[in-house]
Amino acid sequence: MSKRLSPQLQHITEDACCETHLEPIQLFCDVDQITLCSKCFQSQEHKHHMVCGIQEAAENYRKLFQEILNTSREKLEAAKSILTDEQERMGMIQEEEQNFRRMIESEYSMRLRLLNEECELNLQRERECVSDLNLREGLLNQVIKLATELEEMFQEMLQRLSHVGRENMKKLKENEARVSEQICSLQKLTTELEKKCGEGALALLKNAKYSLERSRSLLLERLEPAHITDLSLCHIRGFSSMFRVLQ
After folding, report:
1. 27 close to 54: Cβ distance less than 8 angstroms
2. What is the pTM assigned to this prediction?
């Protein structure tokens, strides 16, 4: 490699000298991540290392930082979108839970009314056809049993609904906090990368590889909406079988 500096490199390094040899800094060792003068380059320590001019190394790293900066901006916008969606979902699942609760209560009232009507109809038929009090008493006991089972199913569904609603809200809030934290990290990273891309060659090369690896690791974190349980799973099947038993 030529020891003569180009005018461009002279402009970059005219105020930067090697502390060991007091020679102008011309080169950059990518292995050790340090700047070198011509005498440093000739030492055994860097003999087999990948070394290039400071300007070339700076431009290579600048391109890499710019690519990561673009990715960081895209991921930041995606994170903001997910955060908005999660906040909207919180309101939606609360409304959905209330609607589902009203539906369960309405279905319970309807089933109970049908059960009472079926009971009255059967009692009327028994009075007309049979005078056996034991038979009528058995029918009443069966109706009471079915009504009790209906009430138990109703209460179980409401308990399931409340439990699933709380779990869904917990998941959404936890994900909201996680995404908010990620947004802060991405905003900080974006600012750092914007500053890095605008720095001069020597400043940009300082801890360049470490900064790249750290930035990439932050971008590896996955962002996705919280997985919540469908409230329809709270519904208990078996209402219709009650009426078949009664009939």
Report:
1. yes
2. 0.70
